């Protein structure tokens, strides 16, 4: 296969796969699958995993991997649910949810690039100041009269500020220990999920209903749901940044050849950290949509999303070897995964059939990636 034909297949192949998958279930499931209400439901289901997959695409293009996407969504959702339960306005809670995802991504990037000691010192300072702030505030009369929620968020803010200050104060700490992205994100896959369960005491966190928040993931009579517009907006911004900005071009160069990028003068350490922050922020935004969809914080939510996000990116043309990826292709891949799940449900197939189909798609996506590399 020539280079031109290979590039054309990489661009058009995902769309061909999407059309073939849709036609298969349209012919076999019929009316229940073809209805607009069902397609609107599929778009809503794609919104959450699609936003997360956009962040995963950045990581894959940079030559990395992120197995903690689902756990990041769960943890960020729990933070947002606690913020809503404490009485914060929903936009503030949504911002806290997204920032929690970005913080998880920053932690991943710090560990991958070897800043373990620097991260531990910053985290230790933050935890110490947060505990001291809460302890001193708890002794006051205001905290005893019901200011516990406000005090808790104040302590958290103080701790985050202290952690940031210590991190910025130690930019040239010489002791580094770079770790494999696979190992780091595999460890965080369990650690972040456990932290999410700890925040809720192994229970979901319920909060008063917010109509504006719930409206993000509700069908609309004339237009697409707001959550779908959020997905399209994130995708447009990410696609522009990946293709048209200096940062995006550097990510491609870094993914294609890390050593050449370093010799060219790129800050490969800072670049890799920022990529994981982007992925974490996307997971945090996905958590906002999931929070709207569930109307509660669930520490067990988004299980398996990491595999779906990676599969969506690879189906869409991203290479696990790094250096290649498309946001539009990722959206196509995410919709393929949703069509398979939804189509199996409309056919009345058991969950185990859907899981087998999803696993087969993931293996097929990896095999397709290897074939593209050979060609």
Question: Can you characterise this structure?
Answer:
The chain is mainly alpha-helical and 375 residues long. The chain has helices spanning 3-29, 31-34, 36-61, 69-85, 90-112, 116-138, 141-144, 148-169, 181-199, 211-214, 226-244, 246-256, 258-263, 268-294, 305-315, 327-346, 351-374. The longest helix is centred in the N-terminal third of the chain and has 27 residues, at 3-29. The radius of gyration is 22 Å and the shape is globular. The N and C termini lie close together (6 Å). The model has no long low-confidence stretch (mean pLDDT 87).
List the helices and strands and how they pair.
Blueprint: H1 3-29, H2 31-34, H3 36-61, H4 69-85, H5 90-112, H6 116-138, H7 141-144, H8 148-169, H9 181-199, H10 211-214, H11 226-244, H12 246-256, H13 258-263, H14 268-294, H15 305-315, H16 327-346, H17 351-374
User: What would you call the structural class?
Assistant: mainly alpha
Number of helices: 17
List low-pLDDT spans: none
Task: Count the E strands.
Answer: 0
* End-to-end CA span: 6 Å
Average pLDDT score: 87
Strand content: under 5%
Largest sheet: none
Q: Which series of helices and strands comes N to C?
A: HHHHHHHHHHHHHHHHH
Radius of gyration: 22 Å
**What general form does the structure show?**
globular
* Fraction of residues in helix: over 70%
């Amino acid at each position: 296969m020539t280079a031109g034909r290979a590039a054309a297949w990489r661009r058009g192949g995902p769309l061909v796969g999407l059309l073939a998958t849709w036609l298969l279930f349209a012919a076999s499931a019929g009316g229940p699958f073809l209805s607009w209400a069902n397609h609107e439901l599929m778009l809503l289901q794609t919104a959450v995993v699609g936003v997360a997959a956009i962040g995963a695409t950045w990581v894959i293009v940079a030559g990395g991997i992120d197995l903690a996407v689902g756990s990041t969504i769960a943890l960020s959702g729990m933070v947002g649910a606690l913020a809503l339960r404490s009485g914060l306005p929903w936009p503030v809670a949504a911002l806290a949810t997204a920032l929690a995802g970005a913080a998880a991504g920053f932690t991943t990037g710090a560990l991958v690039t070897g800043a373990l000691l620097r991260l531990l010192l910053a985290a230790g300072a933050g935890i110490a100041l947060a505990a001291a702030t809460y302890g001193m505030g708890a002794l006051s009369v205001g905290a005893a009269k019901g200011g516990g929620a406000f005090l808790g968020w104040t302590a958290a803010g103080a701790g985050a500020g202290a952690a940031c200050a210590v991190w910025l104060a130690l930019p040239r700490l010489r002791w580094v220990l770079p770790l494999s992205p696979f190992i780091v994100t595999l460890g965080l896959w369990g650690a972040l999920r456990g932290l999410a369960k700890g925040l809720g005491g192994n229970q979901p966190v319920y909060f008063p209903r917010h109509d504006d928040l719930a409206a993000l993931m509700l069908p609309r009579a004339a237009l697409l749901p707001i959550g779908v517009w959020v997905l399209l907006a994130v995708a447009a911004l990410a696609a522009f940044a990946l293709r048209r900005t200096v940062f995006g071009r550097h990510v491609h160069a870094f993914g294609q050849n890390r050593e050449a990028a370093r010799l060219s003068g790129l800050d490969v350490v800072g670049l890799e950290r920022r990529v994981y922050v982007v992925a974490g922020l996307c997971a945090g935004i996905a958590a906002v949509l999931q929070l709207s969809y569930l109307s509660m914080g669930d520490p067990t939510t988004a299980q398996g999303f990491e595999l779906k996000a990676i599969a969506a990116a690879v189906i869409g043309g991203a290479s696990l070897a790094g250096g290649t990826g498309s946001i539009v292709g990722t959206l196509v891949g995410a919709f393929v995964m949703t069509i398979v799940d939804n189509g199996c449900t409309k056919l009345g197939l058991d969950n185990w059939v859907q899981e087998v189909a999803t696993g087969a798609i993931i293996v097929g996506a990896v095999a397709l990636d290897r074939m593209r590399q050979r060609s």
